[in-house]
């Protein structure tokens, strides 16, 4: 089932793109026997996911806000649930070279760029929505065009982005596509923060996480990957077997100090580049998370090479849904994406797309339940 509702109006008008000049956002609610998912056309964002625990009890497992006005502008820089792009995560020196030309993004985190632009990025745009009742599916679309003042987000190409959310049993599937008429840089992600005990239940330190990555990307003092792919073995970054998120998070470790906890990209095993010509690529199992106390779990499958784990190191004090004030580590973000700073590391998988190589990615959240372990 797909239901459409008002999500209220928001402060300043969105500055560009499909929704230019508009101030009203909408919720699209997908539901089936297993899951209820609330989506917003503001930021093509996930606003809520109700999923069952081991006894069948539902809880909303993503952090967020009750109304559109709290999402835009995103004054606390949380990017809760949003589709982030066209350049998610960090670009070193805020510059991208494409076929000999240099493009400058805003230097909004020291000398570097984070998440394109806080008030103009794709997460801050009103997308066009198209619901497909028969398939429990909603597609959000948005176009960026060079030439219109400020409308290109500093990158080349007329680009048509689409994000489709679809329910399939216990799975929420997200399909991302972007066509461009000129070579350009595209790195999209979804920035949901999960708390599998329920969004208002405090620290996620006791929740278990497995990340299927032999290697991760160490960062410098400005959170830019150094270019090294470091084996996780013997480090606090070893999540190959499930462990509590908080088990090693306070370990004396230079990388954890630089990130103030986990804020690092893992190199998901088995990545194969997609040349954009065949059928959609097949996602691989990237991570599995479980709240042992409730038995509520989720797997993340993706076609993308990287997965940024961000343990909500700076979200303390943000007032979210139902007035609940989140604490640091009150949620963990799993952001499937191309590696951060790929433009400055030619050995990283390329996020340059062209007319003959459209951007395509599939990410799935597959929810499951387990026997609850009381007191875990
Ligand atoms: C990403 C970054 C974090 C932080 C969040 C947004 O996860 O890696 O450092 O900026 O986005 O708050």
From TrEMBL:
<dbReference type="GO" id="GO:0030246">
    <property type="term" value="F:carbohydrate binding"/>
</dbReference>
<dbReference type="GO" id="GO:0006006">
    <property type="term" value="P:glucose metabolic process"/>
</dbReference>
<protein>
    <recommendedName>
        <fullName>Aldose 1-epimerase</fullName>
        <ecNumber>5.1.3.3</ecNumber>
    </recommendedName>
</protein>
<keyword id="KW-0119">Carbohydrate metabolism</keyword>
<dbReference type="GO" id="GO:0033499">
    <property type="term" value="P:galactose catabolic process via UDP-galactose, Leloir pathway"/>
</dbReference>
<feature type="binding site">
    <location>
        <position position="263"/>
    </location>
    <ligand>
        <name>beta-D-galactose</name>
    </ligand>
</feature>
<feature type="binding site">
    <location>
        <begin position="89"/>
        <end position="90"/>
    </location>
    <ligand>
        <name>beta-D-galactose</name>
    </ligand>
</feature>
<feature type="binding site">
    <location>
        <begin position="191"/>
        <end position="193"/>
    </location>
    <ligand>
        <name>beta-D-galactose</name>
    </ligand>
</feature>
<keyword id="KW-0413">Isomerase</keyword>
<feature type="active site" description="Proton acceptor">
    <location>
        <position position="335"/>
    </location>
</feature>
<dbReference type="InterPro" id="IPR015443">
    <property type="entry name" value="Aldose_1-epimerase"/>
</dbReference>
<dbReference type="Pfam" id="PF01263">
    <property type="entry name" value="Aldose_epim"/>
</dbReference>
<dbReference type="InterPro" id="IPR014718">
    <property type="entry name" value="GH-type_carb-bd"/>
</dbReference>
<dbReference type="InterPro" id="IPR011013">
    <property type="entry name" value="Gal_mutarotase_sf_dom"/>
</dbReference>
<feature type="active site" description="Proton donor">
    <location>
        <position position="191"/>
    </location>
</feature>
<dbReference type="InterPro" id="IPR018052">
    <property type="entry name" value="Ald1_epimerase_CS"/>
</dbReference>
<dbReference type="InterPro" id="IPR008183">
    <property type="entry name" value="Aldose_1/G6P_1-epimerase"/>
</dbReference>
<dbReference type="InterPro" id="IPR047215">
    <property type="entry name" value="Galactose_mutarotase-like"/>
</dbReference>
<comment type="pathway">
    <text>Carbohydrate metabolism; hexose metabolism.</text>
</comment>
<dbReference type="GO" id="GO:0004034">
    <property type="term" value="F:aldose 1-epimerase activity"/>
</dbReference>
<comment type="similarity">
    <text>Belongs to the aldose epimerase family.</text>
</comment>
